[in-house]
Amino acid sequence: MRLLVCGGAGFIGSNFVRLRARDHGDEVVVLDKLTYAGRRENLADVEHEFVHGAIEDPDAVERAIEGCDAVVNFAAETHVDRSITEPDAFIRTHAQGTFVLLEAVRRRALRFVQVSTDEVYGSIESGSFTETSPLNPSSPYSATKAGADLLVAGYVHTYGLEACICRGSNNYGPRQYPEKLIPLMVLNALHGDPLPVYGDGMQVRNWLYVEDFGRGIGHVLEHGRPGEAYNVGGPDECPNIEVVQRIIELTGSSPDLIEHVTDRPGHDRRYSLSSDKLRELGWEAQVRFAEGLERTVDWYRSQQWWWEPIRSGAYREYYERQYGRALG
Ligand code: NAD
Ligand code: DAU
Questions:
Q1: For the chain, how big is the Rg over CA atoms in Å?
Q2: pTM higher than 0.85, yes or no?
Q3: Residue 137: predicted pLDDT
Q4: Which residues have CB under 6 Å of ligand 1?
């Protein structure tokens, strides 16, 4: 099929484009605004057409969607810490952007998958969220993602749009921008920089290897029932401090690098997803956390060409603002 992938130059989107173009033989068009997180390098080895533009720009969307059979929307601002200090772009992209895409899809009666997050459910002390759990977001990031989910649901209900929502848990793997926990800790550990753990580090995340999320989204695109949401959770949960300790072991760095820093405001304590509904549809996560983390550390260790321009550029200013200290 000819597939429009919005936000396909980012971490998960580019892995998904690779999967669809190589394993499924799809003709892929990528529409991406190329924010700090979007990089053409992420797609250098994959055949695709590229349209540079924003999902909130109706002209760019019209150019990109021409001749497509389906649309998958990854385009988003994705870092919770940035949503706390500068929420504007989150509102524009998630609300206005999703609206513009939905209108274009509605006019053509195309199939649509909205990529969403477990964060729309908020934090859970014990047990796991199912697709019928109430939406209870905590940050400007998750609140605007939840808003986009509700808009999609409204278009399904009112216009009969053939749309599904995929709610993923914390992804990790190659090409993740080093503002997120795992790549930040791996690169800091490799450089001997301090490892900034928020609060007590006992917050728990449900880790999902990026290729497993891509396979889940593809599965929903092909087999999902229109109007339904599907959770896509990882096979393992792990407290942050343990993730950092494993990275120290894998990189051979010193535990003395760990530094407990001021906690994130409104920090969600635990995420956990039940993926039974997608499992019934035939999907299963294939990569356990121990194996995926080792692969990820190996990738960052060997792909300096990818992270060097980030780590020596505007990221340094972001890091200094966020952590109150310079990178080494
Ligand atoms: P990312 O930040 O690596 O990439 C986002 C991409 O979207 C970038 O290429 C960026 O340039 C593009 N983009 C941003 N705003 C845009 C706009 N207005 N128009 C067009 N393109 C725009 O993000 P990611 O981690 O790959 O996340 C992709 C999607 O998956 C997001 O919707 C996110 O909410 C969701 N998600 C992420 C995770 C995770 O752990 N990273 C987990 C579950 C769900
Ligand atoms: O759960 C899915 C979500 O996972 C996605 O929707 C988001 O786009 C993605 O960014 C991610 O959100 P988190 O806030 O969970 O991820 P992050 O990597 O920012 O942080 C993971 C945990 O690690 C969280 O408890 C905060 C903590 N942390 C993070 C950073 C960057 C630290 O302790 N220190 C850090 O320096």
A1: 19
A2: yes
A3: 98
A4: 6-7, 9-13, 32-35, 37-38, 54-56, 74-78, 93, 97, 115, 117, 145, 168, 170-171, 177
Is 118 designated active site? yes
User: What is the distance between the alpha carbons of residues 49 and 46, in angstroms, rounded to a whole number?
Assistant: 10
Closest to 203 in 3D by CA, of 323, 123, 291: 123
Pairing state between β 204-209 and 70-73: unpaired
Using CA atoms of 121, 125, 127, 132 in order, give the dihedral in degrees to the nearest 10: -20
For the chain, how many residues are written? 328
Residue-wise pLDDT for 18-53, tens only, equals 999 999 999 999 999 999 999 999 999 999 999 999
| In contact, 72 and 113? CB cutoff 8 Å | yes
Residues in a beta bridge with 116: 167
The two structure tokens encoding residue 296 = 């990820």
Nearest to 21 by CA among 57, 56, 47: 47
- Residue 322 CB-density burial (10 A; 0-12 exposed, 13-18 middle, 19+ buried): middle
Quick one: DSSP state of residue 273?
B
- Mean pLDDT confidence for 92-97: 98
- Take residue 327 and report the two structure tokens written for it: 């990178």
- Give the number of the atom of ligand 2 that is nearest the alpha carbon of residue 79: 10
| Confidence at residue 328, expressed as pLDDT on a 0 to 100 scale | 84
Two tokens, residue 174 = 């190659």
Write the DSSP symbol of residue 165: E
Per-residue pLDDT tens digits for 239-287 = 999 999 999 999 999 999 999 999 999 999 999 999 999 999 999 999 9
